[in-house]
Specification:
Structural class: alpha/beta
Largest sheet: 7 strands, mixed
Shape: globular
Order of helices and strands: HEHEEEHHEEEEHEEEHEEHEEEEEHHH
Number of helices: 10
CATH topology of the largest domain: FAD/NAD(P)-binding domain
CATH superfamily of the largest domain: FAD/NAD(P)-binding domain
Helix content: 25-40%
CATH class of the largest domain: Alpha Beta
CATH architecture of the largest domain: 3-Layer(bba) Sandwich
Radius of gyration: 23 Å
Length: 422
């Protein structure tokens, strides 16, 4: 057995690769960080009490959690994947929009704060919101998806939000004070006692577990597998290539597996045909459509295209009606000056208490949903849900009973733009 220490062996390896004259193979520099141990982190069973539990850390979920934390609510964010950001990061649609309409910004708040900081730190550029573009996508903002994910984590930490990756609920039951949510991860069984739940899973999976009604069409919009061939990917500077995955369905682990395998198989065939190098591949298909809740209010396509200002509006939205089909997509732009709004009632399952949703699973018909599902709009409704949940937890009530004026005040305090107000 050698008496050589690990440090001696590492130094020997570095000298062997680099050579004593500094020539030869280059070795990537290394640095060490220490993940400090947390008491009880090796325990299988964990029980905790929080005010707000956000399930799903995607486009809407991380914003909802940050907002709830900033409002003073003890908040836990459970995400079954390995990073925050959802469609923007794991899906690779790293050009969120739309924050502006008709020459002015109509969505701001925490989502915009995160996007803005990401672009600035990455040395990127912004479109001129004062100029109305000829095509809507010209005002979408390129972000570095890798940077975005870790900035979202930082903002959660700063807001006091605890993150639990690789976990998802397996059962939920009502309690006198709210909910008992039992989550499962590898090596972890977590019981969460909470006052409010925000379902940001994309397909209202938690709402379905609770037994509330959900809707979806037999045929869903295709998903997209994003990749880049040939030259090196330059994140935050251009859009990735995309390949439609028809039949993509995010309903369960089996349908997600099928979509991912189908997308990767198609990219491999494309790679062999075009004889180019694969320079980038997203880990998961980006899904456009799944279940939607039946809410206290349902946004129709007429509500959306007319720019209806709901009495309980909590956020704006803006995007063409954008239904993808097997023959492609033909966006239907909104008429000049039209800015749709999102009511609180569309984020609350009909007949429920102490549960909200945010993201593409809000209560809307299919055509309205094709415009509402985009990232900036989901960020806005995520922030609104975070406010409503935190105030309901604080006041010992349910979100629908929180005075709208209180919701608007808290949203404005955190930089959001209130519908109908300058």
């Amino acid at each position: 057995m050698s008496d050589e220490s690990p440090t001696d062996r590492r130094q020997f390896l570095q000298r062997s690769l680099l050579g004593t004259t500094g020539l030869g193979m280059a070795m990537a520099s290394t640095s060490d960080v220490v993940a400090k141990p947390v008491p009880g982190e090796m325990d299988v069973d964990v029980t905790q009490e929080v005010d707000v539990l956000v399930i799903g850390g995607g486009t809407a979920g991380n914003i909802a959690a940050i907002q709830a934390g900033r409002a003073g609510a003890k908040t836990l964010l459970v995400e079954r994947g390995a990073q925050l950001g959802g469609t923007t990061t794991t899906g690779g649609v790293a050009f969120p929009g739309l924050f502006d309409a008709w020459g002015k910004q109509i969505i701001a708040g925490i989502g915009w704060e995160l996007v803005k900081e990401c672009v600035e730190l990455d040395g990127g550029t912004f479109p001129n919101f004062a100029k109305v573009p000829k095509r809507h996508w010209q005002n979408q903002i390129q972000v570095n998806l890798f940077l975005y994910a870790i900035l979202a984590e930082e903002k959660c930490e700063q807001a006091g939000v605890q993150i639990a990756f690789h976990e998802f609920p397996e059962s939920i039951r009502a309690t006198p004070k709210g909910w008992q949510v039992d989550c499962l991860g590898f090596g972890t069984r977590r019981r969460v006692l909470c006052k409010q739940v925000i379902d940001c899973t994309g397909g209202a999976e938690v709402v379905g577990m609770m037994g509330f009604e959900r809707l979806r069409e037999e045929e869903t919009q295709p998903g997209s597998m994003l990749f880049h061939l040939g030259e090196a990917n330059d994140p935050g500077r251009h859009q990735l290539h995309q390949l439609y995955v028809h039949g993509a369905d995010s309903t369960n682990s089996r349908t997600v597996t099928k979509a991912n395998l189908t997308g990767r198989k198609s990219i491999l065939a494309k790679l062999r045909k075009e004889k180019k190098r694969l320079m980038h591949l997203q880990p998961e298909t980006g899904f456009r459509e799944s279940y939607r809740i039946v809410g206290e209010t349902t946004i129709t396509v007429n509500d959306y295209t007319s720019g209806r200002l709901f009495k309980d509006a909590v956020s704006n939205a803006f995007y063409p009606v954008d239904l993808h089909t097997k023959s492609g997509v033909k966006p239907k732009p909104l008429k000049p000056g039209t800015v749709p709004s999102i009511p609180l009632g569309a984020l609350i399952p009909k007949g429920s208490r102490n549960i909200l949703v945010a993201g593409r699973c809000l209560s809307s018909d299919r055509l309205a949903n094709s415009g509402l599902r985009v990232q900036a709009s989901c960020m806005g409704m995520g922030q609104a849900a975070g406010v409503a949940a935190s105030l309901a937890a604080k006041n010992g009530t349910t979100p629908l009973d929180v005075p709208l004026a209180e919701i608007h005040r808290q949203l404005a305090k955190n930089g959001a733009i209130i519908p109908g107000k300058t």
